[in-house]
Amino acid sequence: MVDAGIVGIRELTSDEKKDMREVGKKTAKQKIVMLLKEKEQEYVNKYLPFSFAGAKIDIEDEFDRLEKEIERTGKVRELDVVKMSSELDFDKYGDAKRFKLLSMKPVSEDKLLDGIRASVITGYYWNYQDVVRGNIHISVFVPLEEHNKRTGKK
Fold first, then answer.
1. Sign of CA dihedral 88, 89, 93, 98
2. Which residues, other chains included, contact 100 with Cβ-Cβ below 8 Å and sequence gap of 6+?
3. How confident is the model at residue 81 (pLDDT cuts 50, 70, 90)?
4. Is 55 inside a domain boundary?
5. Which residues make Cβ contacts (< 8 Å) with residue 69, sequence separation at least 6?
6. C-beta separation of 126 from 139 below 8 A
7. Number of structural domains, the chain?
8. Are 104 and 127 in contact (CB under 8 A)?
9. Does residue 103 have a pLDDT over 60?
10. Of 19, 48, 101, 142, which has the fewest beta carbons less than 10 angstroms from its beta carbon?
11. How many helices (H) and strands (E) does the chain have?
């Protein structure tokens, strides 16, 4: 296999090789964010809030900590990244205790009923605030049937 340097000129030095990355290969951070997106989708399918932004902030903080570790020691083991990703509990970002319900706003759509255009309520936006990180607001669309089940209405 040919090295990634300029062929025929010279071999790459160890410092140059250290700074290079494989093109198209996902980084550990990208892999963790993909896992986070999958977990968020589980909550979306259940019409429940999930603090994706809060989780992403925590992930970035953890990677910043790992980068400082690299600066101090000159290296970080791949094991540390794997350990960090396995220790992250994404379910805590969807925990019901984490959210405060602010409001429920109806969602209406225009439908053609018996030749007459009428506005019909198809669901509700449930607006939440992440109480752990107070500046994060989340809106979750809840279909009318699910809204009625949760609120006890018919």
1. negative
2. 128, 129, 131
3. low
4. yes
5. 76, 80
6. yes
7. 1
8. yes
9. yes
10. 19
11. 5, 3
pLDDT > 70 in the chain, percent: 82
- Any domain includes 19: yes
Task: With respect to residue 83, please indicate whether it lies within any of the assigned structural domains.
Answer: yes
Q: How confident is the model at residue 59 (pLDDT cuts 50, 70, 90)?
A: confident
Q: Is residue 34 part of a domain?
A: yes
- SS3 per residue for 63-126: HHHHHHHHHHHCCCCHHHHHHHHHHCCHHHHHCHHHEEEEEEEEEEEEEEECCEEEEEEEEEEE
| Average pLDDT across the chain, whole number | 82
Domain that holds residue 80: 14-151
CA-based radius of gyration for the chain = 24
The predicted-structure confidence for 33-49, as pLDDT tens digits, reads as follows: 888 899 999 999 999 99
DSSP code for 5: S
Residue whose structure tokens are 């600066």? 71
pLDDT in tens, 1-22: 455 555 567 777 877 776 666 6
Work out the burial of residue 94: count CB atoms within 10 Å of its CB; fewer than 13 is exposed, 13-18 middle, 19 or more buried: buried
